[in-house]
Amino acid sequence: MTSKSNSLEPGDLLVRRAVEDWKQFATGGPIEPVIKDLHELRTRDPEARKSPEHYRAHLEQLSKQLSQQSLLPNMEILGVKSGYILARDKSRSQTLLVGHQVRDVVVHSTSGRWHARQGAYRPLETSPGRIGPADVRQGNQINDCKWQARLASLVQADPEAVSKMIRDNHNGTYTVKFPGAPGKPQTVFAPTPWERATFSAGGGEWPLILSKAYRQLERIPFGPPGAARNTEGLLTGKPQSLLAIFDLPCHSQAKDPRVRAAQCAARPLPFNFFGGTVSKWVDRHSHQLSGLQSKDVSRVLSESLANHMIVNTVFDAAKLKAIKPGVSAYTSDGHGGAVQVNLQGRHAYSVLSYDQHRQVVVLRNPWGKNFETRTHKQAGDGTVKMPFSQFVGTILALDLEKTSRSR
């Protein structure tokens, strides 16, 4: 008589369990439960045991559900191989082994054996003057603009910080010591071709190494898009403060006076210069949200950038859309001229410089590109110039973080 524990589960229930186990894996859990689920899809489902087609149908169902939930975008699961999950990247027709280290796979043309390879070792260039914000190019499938913009702002404000963080072990691995987590060094393999294509759209090597180490530290080695978290202070070990734009008096749009009063009362502590400098404010209000009036943005920008601080910003999508025929944001056309480009709302940008005399702000999109307002064609290298008046009228906040060069 068959015991209840040995009873077979329907394939759809096993797929559902595999999705739940993958969610745990994607947020730092072990991969072994997912591998067990895939084994059981083949061995415990009666139809799958009889027919490989049924097993492949279950895998297609699992791949579809993972893709729909942004857990494994644009990927097709093929099975299990050598303790890894075998998958295919449909956009690049590339086969991968997915585990706590994602590795590219090649098939030997004669033996048919699978060979996993680590990324090809490349001499790492981190010398100040040889690296810069242009090395940062956010991958197309990973929604971590906040992290990528922080990398670009860091190398702009304190390029020596990059070389201090990364040690080349000259054996195909690198050890990263984040100033914000000094007791947790991370050793990672050289980026694989798949990782270069996924996490970086043709950028430099150092951002990829820091990104691998960061995701390993946070246990999100193959996490879903938008998994960037706990980035504040990690790259610098220094105080950080978020300044949201709140003009006084409060102009809540709520019709109910009680709601309006509550919204105004809930605004963050207003920023002021009573302490003397932006640096002192950040020291005293580290990891806090403060309210910044528009009239103070110019001084805050000037002081922060002159003091070698990381400065990032996010735009209000509604305010950008309200400006007709579009924000006066321009990038190089590659021929000595300039073209107008769109800015993205709810997307992190690095603030690279501010010319207070000419009232011009220079930003950089971590995508490493922008799109023309008129034709929507790709344009430039991500760098954008815009008038300060439109900058201050459309941003939601300034994200400030001190570096080792900040006073």
What does this protein look like?
The chain has 407 residues and is an alpha+beta fold. The protein has 3 domains: 4-87, no CATH class; 133-217, no CATH class; 240-401, Cysteine proteinases (Cathepsin B, Chain A, Alpha-Beta Complex). It is built from 13 helices and 20 strands. It has helices spanning 11-26, 32-43, 46-50, 52-68, 145-157, 160-165, 193-199, 205-217, 257-265, 278-284, 297-306, 317-322, 388-394; strands at residues 75-81, 84-89, 94-98, 103-107, 114-117, 166-168, 173-176, 186-189, 240-245, 269-270, 289-292, 310-315, 330-332, 338-340, 348-355, 360-364, 370-371, 378-379, 383-387, 395-401. An 8-stranded mixed β-sheet has the order 10-11-9-20-12-15-16-19. Helix 10 (278-284) links the parallel strand 10 and strand 11 (289-292). The model is unreliable at 1-8 and 222-227 (pLDDT under 50).
In short:
With 407 residues, this protein is an alpha+beta fold. It is built from 13 helices and 20 strands. The chain has helices spanning 11-26, 32-43, 46-50, 52-68, 145-157, 160-165, 193-199, 205-217, 257-265, 278-284, 297-306, 317-322, 388-394; strands spanning 75-81, 84-89, 94-98, 103-107, 114-117, 166-168, 173-176, 186-189, 240-245, 269-270, 289-292, 310-315, 330-332, 338-340, 348-355, 360-364, 370-371, 378-379, 383-387, 395-401.
Report the sheet with the most strands, covering strand number, pairing sense and barrel closure.
Answer: 8 strands, mixed
CATH A-level architecture of the largest domain: Alpha-Beta Complex
**What structural class do helix, strand and pairing data support?**
alpha+beta
Would you tell me which CATH topology of the largest domain applies?
Answer: Cathepsin B, Chain A
- pLDDT < 50 runs, ≥5 residues: 1-8, 222-227
Query: How many strand segments?
Result: 20
Q: Estimate the mean pLDDT confidence.
A: 82
CATH H-level homologous superfamily name of the largest domain: Cysteine proteinases
> What gross morphology would you assign?
globular
Query: What integer value in Å does the Rg equal?
Result: 25 Å
Strand content: 15-25%
Give the count of helical stretches: 13
Which strand order does the major sheet show? Answer: 10-11-9-20-12-15-16-19
CATH C-level name of the largest domain: Alpha Beta
Separation, N- and C-terminal Cα atoms:
77 Å
Helix percentage: 25-40%
Domain count: 3
